Automatic annotation (TrEMBL):
Family under the similarity heading: Belongs to the glycosyl hydrolase 1 family.
Record GO biological process: carbohydrate metabolic process; glucosinolate catabolic process; response to salt stress
UniProt source species: Arabis alpina (Alpine rock-cress)
Protein name, per record: Thioglucosidase
Keyword Hydrolase in record: yes
Amino acid sequence: MARGSCFFIILMIISLLANANSSQILDRHSFPDDFVFGTAASAFQYEGATDEGGKSPAIWDHFSRTYPERTKMHNADVAIDFYHRYKDDIKLMKELNMDAFRFSISWARLIPSGKLKDGVNKEGVQFYNDLIDELLANDIQPSMTLYHWDHPQSLEDEYGGFLSAKIVEDFRDFARVCFEEFGDKVKMWTTINEPYIMTVAGYDQASTDDKEAAERALAFEIGWHLDPVIHGDYPEMVKKYVGNKLPSFTTEQSKMLRNSSDFVGVNYYTARFVAHVPHIDPEKPRFKTDHHVEWKMTNHSGHIIGLGEERGIVLSHPEGLRKVLNYIKDRYNNMPVYIKENGISDNDDGTKPREEILKDTFRIQYHDTHFQELHKAIVEDGCDVRGYYAWSLLDNFEWEHGYTARFGLYYVDFVNGLKRYPKDSVRWFKRFLKGSVGESKEEDVKKMARVEWNKTMHEQEGFEESASFFLSFMATNQSTREEEKNRCSIDFPISRFGGLHGIENPMSF
């Protein structure tokens, strides 16, 4: 009996170690030669210097100052002071062997009133030109986002911001200034970061497991934004459920929109299960109820969609990344895709010592498992993915979470002078991006084996039930100023922490 038990235990250990080592050991050379690796940021979350250099208050300045209880009593007046420290932070990118840096332009810094007729802020132009030049001097390609949720508060006061069609002309002028001032150096552009968050969290939400439900959620979160720029119209399912609340395109608008993107940008973080909601209150119509879908972290058996709830706001579900890439490949003619954001946070309530936060083995595992799924999507499934940007280089101001959600590869000491400290994930990324071989890889394998062994049997179980994934979207418009190889993009949202859904067969999209 004892001998049999010992035999069972040995078999189980061998089985677990086999699972731990079944993943490929990847490095940058496992991906296509021209594949881009970078980090991502946004102006409001990084820059600080809110009242310097001619910048006017942006909507998030107003929001965080007026309703501090909504942002953990934090604001981004200083943020991580990237405005003054960008040269040192670019050195960190260089040391990481990153190819690119995705960042956004503050509309309120470039055109403080929001209106071109009132003039362009030359100090703002100079700052972004200096930033771009410093990146290029370090062989880091700039990838620029026009709008990352921070238009001037003056436009919100005047006509309600993006609730008014008047913003189209002002945004067009802002974009034109950006292209004219920076277009000779910046070859990749995205327009609006995560339109889903901007619309639903900004205007709908803030003002208050079956296959069909999953497909409906996909239509509302991906199709709502991507179908128009590829097919020239909203998905039929969205039109069916929203009815006359959904605007319609004229024939000319539809023609102009169709195939107007060069690539799709995806911000992928996590996943959710979905369930059908049969009844809604007809007296309170809103986006969050139009799709008749409820997002859940657990399925009907009580299984959680992924690991990490105790750490922060992201549950790791790397399989969802492969699913969404295949969905885009199948529905949108295998358009080129860039993963514009991917990362995981550590919750810091002020009680954790820095040394503990620096030991971010969970972040290493998160990126490694997502690279595994990304590699499968490219090599096995034929998805045309051309780049990956980690969110984020540095801990920063995370919107409603303030400074409590740490997504950075580098720790930022918000109490003592904003000093940067490398987390363990920095060393991992350096090895990954150098394509090192030998002992460091063996150490990584052993480490991952230990991680797998320490998981509970529950955590090792796969989930065949409906899985959903949180992601954000960016699609890109074709540039009229640059040759075809130069990318000019538009961002399409699918909530950063809002979800999409898979189905029983993981590859059945």
